[in-house]
Specification:
heterodimer; A: 204 residues; alpha+beta; four-stranded antiparallel β-sheet; 8 strands; 21% strand; globular; B: 192 residues; 9 helices; 51% helix; 23% strand
Chain lengths: 204, 192
């Protein structure tokens, strides 16, 4: 194992292996070959990782903590993603096109991420056996997810979106201020409170 | 007609003439009448198309209402792309608006190409990246801009589509109520 990673909790490697394993089978040895191209980055909570106008040079896998991605809109903001352990987060358009970011990335908890710069990513995909395949599969996975989110947003009612999200992410109500969840689900804060009360009633 | 394909590919990746010939040999010319359902809900899409002429839409149903998520014209790629990539039944209908001529490639041929050399994997990644970016730009624009701004931006960027695509389809694609769309269009004509 590379000594840079010697003090890292092995569970973080499990997240990385699990993430990549969704796209192709990958051994622990192959994982460590790939990790040579990565950095481990640690941040305090409430730290801005990328601001509007900056170019995001990183692809990040969250291994501990919580990052929110939001789009400033006039005097307000809309949360696009709440990324926890095992999730990939970045300013995608900026990373892929090198354009200034339209969105902000900010940690909400102390956060550790495995991060890869664009150039290192291209190098890894070029050198690693089947790297280009892995790269294509990852992008394909990201695209499918994006399409699915859009489909669900257009298909589902506010109420369905709320109940689906809470069912799949029950712990998030404890981890994140309610107004952030409401923003992420594009639900008015008052409606969110009402639905939450409904949820409590259902459980009883 | 292969020039059009070459132009499209050159935007994404550098290919030698020989590589391009390899790809071109897999392409089958096809033609669809207007209002043809190319892929229906529940079917597995095994082909995607590079559009040479014409225009198509992709949509699904919310209750009885059609929700249009994509409009593709000449120079673009049409298909029920998620079904094509995952092998799962399509959630979308792909239907032509105008008659469409296109070059088709099958999933098997494309997979074989990916297997043959990593440069084709990279080519695949670049194309998927462009699909990904398209959705993300659309998402961010929808959040960032008001209905009116979205309408004006679209009209400026796609003056041809305004003439070629029925108004109700454009309204659905832009997530604008049909009545609001009409009102904004009248307003725009007046301002001119």
């Amino acid at each position: 194992m590379n000594k840079v990673f010697a003090d890292i909790d092995p569970i973080y490697f499990d997240y990385a292996q699990k993430y990549l394993g969704r796209f192709m089978p990958i051994t622990r040895e192959e994982l460590f070959d790939l990790l040579q191209y990565c950095e481990i980055r640690r941040f305090d909570k409430r730290k801005i990782l990328v601001n509007v106008g900056e170019v995001d040079n990183y692809l990040n896998l969250v291994v501990k903590g919580l990052v929110r991605k939001y789009l400033p809109v006039k005097k307000s903001e809309v949360i696009l993603q709440l990324a926890t352990e095992g999730h990939v987060v970045q300013s995608e358009i900026s990373f892929l096109t090198k354009a200034p970011s339209m969105v902000v990335l900010e940690t909400l908890e102390p956060t550790i991420m495995v991060s890869l710069t664009y150039d290192k990513m291209e190098e890894a995909l070029d050198k690693f056996p089947k790297g280009e395949r892995l790269g294509r599969m990852i992008l394909t996975g990201m695209f499918i997810k994006k399409d699915e989110n859009r489909y669900n947003r257009l298909l589902k009612t506010t109420r369905q979106r709320f109940f689906d999200y809470i069912e799949h992410h029950p712990h998030m109500l404890q981890r994140v201020p309610q107004k952030y969840l409401a923003s992420y689900l594009q639900i008015k804060p008052e409606t969110f409170s009402r639905l939450k009360a409904l949820l409590a009633k259902r459980k009883n | 007609m292969l020039d059009q394909v070459r132009q499209f590919i050159d935007q994404h990746i550098e290919l030698t003439n020989e590589d391009f010939q390899t790809l071109a040999s897999k392409l089958q010319p096809v033609r669809f009448d207007k209002k043809t359902k190319v892929v229906d809900i529940g079917e597995v899409a095994t082909t995607i198309y590079f559009v040479l002429t014409g225009i198509s839409r992709r949509y699904f149903y919310r209750g009885k209402q059609e929700v249009i998520t994509h409009l593709v014209k000449e120079g673009g790629i049409m298909g029920s792309v998620i079904s094509f990539l995952t092998g799962q039944p399509s959630r979308y209908i792909l239907e032509t608006i105008e008659p469409v001529t296109a070059l088709a490639i099958s999933k098997n041929d494309l997979e074989a190409l990916f297997e043959s050399d990593k440069k084709w994997e990279k080519f695949g990644r670049r194309i998927i990246t462009s699909f990904f970016l398209q959705i993300e730009y659309h998402n961010l624009d929808n959040i960032k801009y008001s209905t009116r701004e979205r309408f004006v931006n679209f009209m400026k960027q796609n003056p041809d589509l305004v003439l070629r695509v029925p108004q109700k389809y454009l309204a659905s694609y832009l997530e604008i109520q049909p009545e609001t769309f009409s009102r904004l269009k009248h307003l725009m004509v007046k301002e001119k």
